[in-house]
Amino acid sequence: MNLQKAFDREKENHKNPPFSDDLSNEDVENNLVTTMKRSERYRVLKKNGMSMDSIRLSFNTPAKMKIFTWKGERDTILSPRDSMLYYKGFLRAGFMSMVPQTGEVRAYVGGPNYKHFMYDMVSLGKRQVGSIIKPFLYTVAMQEGLTPCDKVPNIAQTFDVGDGTTWTSRNSTRARSGEMVTLRWGLANSVNNISGWVLKQFKPQAVVDMAKKMGVVSKIAAVPSVFLGTSEITVREMVGAYGTYANKGVYIKPRFISKIEDHKGNLIAQSVPRKREVMDEKTAYLMTNLLQGVVQKGTGVRLRFTYNLYNPMGGKTGTTQNHSDGWFMGITPELVSGVWTGAEDRSIHFEGIRQGQGANMALPIWALYMQKVYADKSIGLTQGDFEKPRGVNINLDCNQVSNENNNNDLNESEDEDFF
């Protein structure tokens, strides 16, 4: 609710609220016409032979209707066109939570209200994922022998795109620019230069291959900007993928039904977890360490100081271009959950990264959910730590290994995904 209020206040003085002011009047009109043509009202009127002019008149004629509000339904009078604009102004969220060891889905929210928002933003809706794709890149690095405390240069990386042009990574801040920094610091603060350096060592196709092994079925282009998360992927796919880290390197496909019984309790059908080993336990453990760094001293740090969640957990924030999509993926040893927050159209978004980043739009939903889960003793989460595999003796205290300067952490500042 507070996020929605902040969004509404920001749009009050816009020329075409809730759209961003970078859209022209013509762009807004084209958007509304497209939305109109997707509606059931339009399909019915068109099927009945009504002309376009008559359909437009119908959409501009006020009528009695019930509308959704955050405080419940309300009777009002609006034209169908105005109701389209009204609903576009709502920020939406998709949320899914599952047990990483079994794939059993424990919570699933496809949108604000099924009656008024009949679209599932967990399994059907695909949006650009931003920096929550970066762990796939770091997984390749850990698998190939790098460690969280290895240092790399925080400098811009330039790539040959292949058509005679180049593309160069950019950071949204100059913090520690030009310094040698650890991979843990780079992921914790979502620094694009560090991801660019890692990508140069292992190539885009390796990132795509890793994502596919971890259950992502949506198309991901093997291009230099792959770590910016310009690919459109579902919440469901991302939660399943992140479950691999908490499940010691074994991917399990999310499942919604464990068994079916008749009214007498006789077993009719039983689902079997579909799983495959993606990485060894060492790689998965190193990744949980990297993701814990995001929460301890990176873009997810408000989980600690705002929501008082101090048990073992890791995560990753994501923010796409123009702040259109905010993401947070969170893992604990017993639950893996993911959140996407945004509007119906990517052209409707916060104007600044302070309000529009994943740490502000999506992370609070994950935090409030986990607070309630831990408070409910009937659920019985142990709040234990991620299990360290036998034979892994790597020192993961990067301050001890490399004298990392804690005072230079970015905390919640996040690199928006420039491309």
TrEMBL record:
Acetylation is among the record's keywords: no
Primary site of residence: membrane
Ranges of biased composition (kind: Basic and acidic residues): 1-15
Residues annotated as domain Penicillin-binding protein transpeptidase: 96-333
Gene3D superfamilies referenced in this protein's UniProt entry, alphabetically: DD-peptidase/beta-lactamase superfamily
Domain of life: Bacteria
Reactions accelerated catalytically: [GlcNAc-(1->4)-Mur2Ac(oyl-L-Ala-gamma-D-Glu-L-Lys-D-Ala-D-Ala)](n)-di-trans,octa-cis-undecaprenyl diphosphate + beta-D-GlcNAc-(1->4)-Mur2Ac(oyl-L-Ala-gamma-D-Glu-L-Lys-D-Ala-D-Ala)-di-trans,octa-cis-undecaprenyl diphosphate = [GlcNAc-(1->4)-Mur2Ac(oyl-L-Ala-gamma-D-Glu-L-Lys-D-Ala-D-Ala)](n+1)-di-trans,octa-cis-undecaprenyl diphosphate + di-trans,octa-cis-undecaprenyl diphosphate + H(+); Preferential cleavage: (Ac)2-L-Lys-D-Ala-|-D-Ala. Also transpeptidation of peptidyl-alanyl moieties that are N-acyl substituents of D-alanine
Pfam family, one: Transpeptidase
Places the protein is found: Membrane
InterPro entries: Beta-lactam/transpept-like, Glycosyltr_51/Transpeptidase, PCN-bd_Tpept
UniProt entry keywords in alphabetical sequence: Cell membrane, Cell shape, Cell wall biogenesis/degradation, Glycosyltransferase, Membrane, Peptidoglycan synthesis, Transferase
Region (Disordered): 1-27, 398-419
Name recorded for this polypeptide: Penicillin-binding protein transpeptidase domain-containing protein
